[in-house]
Each structure stands twice: as structure tokens, then as C-alpha cells.
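=== RUN LOG ===
request id: a7f3
mode: sequence -> structure
chains: 1
length: 768
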Amino acid sequence: MAGNNEQNSRVARKKSQPKPPKKHWFRRIILSLAALFVIGVLAGLGLFFYYAQTAPTVKQSNLVDTSAVKIYDKNDDYVTTLGTNNRQYVKSSNIPTALKNAVVSIEDRRFYKHKGVDYYRILGAAVGNLKGSSLGMQGGSTLTMQLVKLAVFSTSTSDRNLKVKAQEAWLALNLEKHYSKSQILEFYINKVYMGNGIYGMGTAAKYYYGKSLKDLSLSQLALLAGMPQSPTYYDPTTYPAYATSRRNLVLEAMYDNKVITKSQETAAEKVNIKTGLTSSGRASLTKHEKTNKILDAYLNQVRQDLVKKGYQLNDGEKVYTNLDMDAQKRLYDIANTSQYVSYPNNGKQTFQLGVSVVDSYTGKISAMLGGRNIGNVTYGTNRAVQTDRSNASTMKPILDYGPAIEYLNWPTYKTLADTKYKYPGTNITVHDFDNNTLGNMTMREALVQSRNIPAIRTLQAVGLSRAKTFANGLGMNLKTVEYANGIGAGVSTLQVAGAYAAFANGGVYHKPYYIRKVTNAEGVTTSYTSTGKRAMKKSTAYMITDMLKGVINSATGTGTTAKISGVYQAGKTGTDDYDSKYKNLVPSNAVVDSWMAGYTKNYSVAVWTGYDKSIEAGGYLDPSNEKISQQVYRAMMNYLQQYSPNSDWTKPSSVGTTKKNGIEELYVVGHLFSSSEASSGTSSSASSSSTTIRNSSTSTEASSSSSSESSRSSSEAASSSSSEESSSSESSTESSSSSEASSSSETSSAASSSETPAADTNNNGVNQ
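=== RESULT ===
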């Protein structure tokens, strides 16, 4: 019995023990999902703030950069705006309330309620998209977010990702802390693209209707408000049916948003979509585009100059330039019609040119052309400022003969040897365009006939260092100078025109410049000018000019095609030959480039002609088109001189005259060379005796010439009557060291760019 009691007792105890609770799996799932949600939210917030930290900065200039930069010419007449279109910024006070209501109704109905990001809108957009219709709620982006996209991002597919969306939202939140709703709406209305190359609804009003926004009807304003979604397809002139449908959708959204009545909606929907459209806006844009095409090279340089000066090109600046619009139009016509010059058409490449026109007195850039037949491009290649082609013999007055007169006081009758000659310190022979030598000649004859050997002999006599100083004083910006540069270096037509203007202006150099003044949006005006610097003595400028007259007027001159009857002018040609390694690719008489640079007392004009790809088919010049550079120069200078006084240069008192072989030659007063002095160091007899020495890199040719100059009596040197000649620049008796004149360390590389197949002195190239 005792055992049974014990057993019953155990059973009873077991039954009385509490049972373990049932497992609540559903609750666990809910809790897990909640935890995952929280983790997801936290992770999302973390990612959001990570993206936010790397978001770009939004400046006010990014928001209002549609304000046009207006360009004025030398007479303060408006000519165009920078860019491809004429943008008109409209302040909020001039934007009709109906347009603001239309934009808000179709793009962001809760615009005035959210703080940049509309969480209700995001949710509503998601639900609406699932249902297939969400009038006025097509996406989660608010107007503020759309403005951010327009300001710092883009509408391209690459900018449609989570990172960009997060950054848009972050920037929108910050934007609304700094700008009012009215300002944000103003920015948006002025920034959106409206098709046909125009931006902003104010510009679109002018383009489509020829009116200001305030003068448009409700129907017209509704169309403009709806166009940004798809400007091409909602163009009322091209796709009127699509445009009508979009306008009506905007009107319906406005009614639903309670900003217009049903009767206003109905009346506006009945208006024909083409009502009020005009072609005047399109004609204005076409005219604007044509003007910009004519001005392309000039505008490009003005734009770059403004950026260098620190302007943002977005504040509606008024830029007053030195542009002579009439001269620019004539230059464009000379290049792009056959009325003045007949251009070749080889069917392979376009015959090209680059032209710069500079005011001789001031350095103001009057006109510029960067090429022919440029097509519908904006800021295309500007060949007028390119420095990758050699300027050939137009360099001779700048680097050779100008310094010789300035530092060595050479007279125009200085004897130079056109005999077999090698670049100093090398075994490389200097050749001329005719592969011939003419013996002794005067400096005048050598320059007029553009002989290469006398030019390099002159550079050697001057010395590379002094020649570089002289040339850079004329804006050449040469980092190094080699003997080959005496017959060409990589400089632009603008640089050459600026340098020649100094010869025309009695030796005073003005760095060429485009802009006279700039007035910003606040009305503050900043003026700009180019302060003239004396780059050479008056005697040097006058003697170079006198010799360069012969290039155009003399029967033996190389620039006779540029002659204009009765016009006082001076100039120099330049022809760049092919490197010998390309000779088998072109005819024997082919050349790479042809230049003509010349000036009057009023204007300096430099012209380059050639082909962009000179070693490809049809890329060479030949005798049939080699003189087109002179024809372009003559046509342009002939036009310029019609409206300018035609007067000759006045000989300064520091220049004397003397008869030599029946020719009136010039000399620097106080430095009248005798016949022996004139032939010292550079005549054929002197040079032949120094050939061996030159090849051993110890030439005394330059130093003997300088020594001859310095041995002149002090009483003769003191007889100069010009106080200007006694300036510090007049170190005329400075000797040129033999190491400078013929240092073997000087390399004789090509004068032109390595990418240009012009004459390389290592390959017997020729420049004329």
C-alpha cells in the first residue's frame, strides 16, 4: 500500500507542475520584421547622410546662370550675347501669377507646404504610378529638387540613381533654408529648357509669341508651363496636337488646384494652340545665330578673357569690346564668299585661314577670324590665335633685323653675305626657297627678297639672348630661341599683328586686347586698357618700316600681290616649306603655310593660310594658291583704309639718309657706317674666312661686327640729336659674345611645332 501511495503521490506532483508556455512564432516574425525595418531605416539614413556629405555645393550663380552676358562693339552698340541663345531673365515681380500657378499645379501642387522634400508627394507618386495615373504628381521630385537638378546635375540617365536623388533631396532641404518660395520659383521659371536652343519661359515667350510673359493669355501661359517635360514634342509649331493635349492637362491641373474656375479652364481649352504664334522670334534667333557665327572667333576670345579676369559669365554683365562690327563683317565675307578672293576647292580639305586685325596706335583688336566655312559650331577652332604653325619669314623683322638695328645700329645698307652657310655650331646647311645663293647684298635687299641665309647671319651677329629679349618685348613669348627661329617660330597671327603694330607706332608696343570695360549687374564698371611700352627706338621702327615698304612696292619684293595703289603700307610675307621626310608625299613646289603680315599707320593685319592636315591628301599649298594670303590681306586692308587717313610715316631726327648705289639708304644718326664698316663681319669675304672657326664653335663673326661698332669715335656717338635715342634701351655698342653667337650647345630644331610637317633645319627645310 505504501508503494501505491508513493506512486500516486509522484503522479499527483507531476500533474500539479505548470506546463511550459507555447512558442509564439508569429510574434517573433513581427518583431524580426520590425527590427529589420528599423535597421533598414537606419541604414538608409546612414547612406543618405553619407551621400549628402559628398553633395556638390549650390551657389547662387548656379541658380541664375541664364542671365545673358551682352556684348557691345567699339561704338557701344549692342551686337549679341555670349552663348548660343539670347536668354532673358525675368524677375519674380514680372512673372504673371497665372504662370506661377500653372507651374505649381502641374509640377508640384504642394510646393508652398513642403520644405524642399515632399514625403506625402513621394508616397502619392508611388501609389499614383501603381494605379497608372497621378495628375500633377508624376514623380517624387519637388520643384526645388528639379531646380537643384538643373543647377548642378543633369537630366541624363547617368544622373538617375539613388546617390543623385539623395543629394538632390539634401540640397533641396538646404536650398529652402536660404531662399524663399518666390525666389525658388523665379529661378526655376528662368532656368528650364524650352526647346530650340532657348532657356527660360521669358525667353520662350519672346521666341514663340514675340511678347513678354505679362502680355500672354492663360492658354499661352499654360502651354509654356507644360513644355519643360518634353520641349521638343510640345513645340506648338511642330507638334500642335501634342502641345494642345499638354496645355489642356495643365489647365485641368490648375482647376483641380482651385487656381482657376471651370469657365476659365473651358475657355482656354477652346483657344487654338497656334493662336498668337509668330515667326519674329525665330527670325531673331536666326539673326542672332548668324551674328554669332560671324563673331565666333572674337567671341571665343572675349569669353576666355572674361574668365581670366574673374567673371562668372552669369550675372548679366555688359561687355564693351574693341570690335569693329563692320570690319568684322567684311572680314567674314572676304573669307566665306568668292566676291573678294577665289578659294581653291580640292574636294578633300577646306582651304583655311586665320586673320587678326589690330589698331596700330592702341593695340585694340578690331576684328578676328578663326577659319572659313566653319558650319554651325560655337567657339570652334580659332586659327588666328593658334601657335602650332611657324610664322616663317614674317619673323625676320622681329627676331633678326629689328634687333640688329636696335643693338648694333646697322644701317639699311649693311652688307650681308648670301653664300653657303651652316647654322652656327652645326653641320646643317641653311637653304633658300630657290636653293641658290646670290652673294653679297644689303640688309634692305635681303629683307625685301626674303633671303634666309642673310637673316640667320644677322641673328648670329645679334646673339640669341638679345634677339629673344627684343622679340619678347613685342609679345612673342618665346621661351627659348634657336637659330632656326630666325626664319620662323610657333606664334599666332595675333602676336604677329601686335608686333607689327609696334613698328607702325614708332616702336611703342601695346599688348592686343579685346575688352574696354565691363559693367556688372549692380552697375559697377571696370575699365581695361593696354598701356604702351617702348619696345624699340624710333629709329629702329622707322628703318624696319622703310625696308618693309619695299616688300610690297619693289619689283623684287615678295609681297607685290598685296600692293594697294596710293596706300602707304609696309609688310612681310612668309612661306613655310615641308620637312624633307615629307617631300615624297607632295609635289616639289608644295609648301605648308603662307603668311602675309602688314600695316599702315592705322591698322596691322596678319593672315595665315593653309590646310589643317597638311600631310594628308589635299593638304598642301602650291603656286596657284600660295599668294591667297596676300589677296586676303589686300582685300581687308583696302576696306580698312577707306575709312582711315592715309599718311606716310615721318622720319625721326635720329635717322639719317645717305645715297648708296643710287638708293636712299638709312642709318642711325651717330652711326654712319663707312663702306668697310658696312661689310665688316658679314660680307662674303669675311664669312668665308670664318667658316672654319664657326664650325669649331668659336665664331668671331658676331663679335667682330660688334667690335667694329664699338670702335667708333666717341664724338661720332655723341652726335645723336634725339633724346629718345639715349634711353637705357640704347646699348648699341654692347658686344655679342662669341659663345652666344655660335654656341655649339644650341640645337637647331624645327622652328615649327613637332606636329606640323614644316621645314626642319635638320632636313634642309626652307622658309621664305
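=== NOTES ===
Residues 133-138, 688-756, 759-765 have pLDDT under 50 and may be disordered.
The two ends are 141 Å apart (CA to CA).
=== END ===
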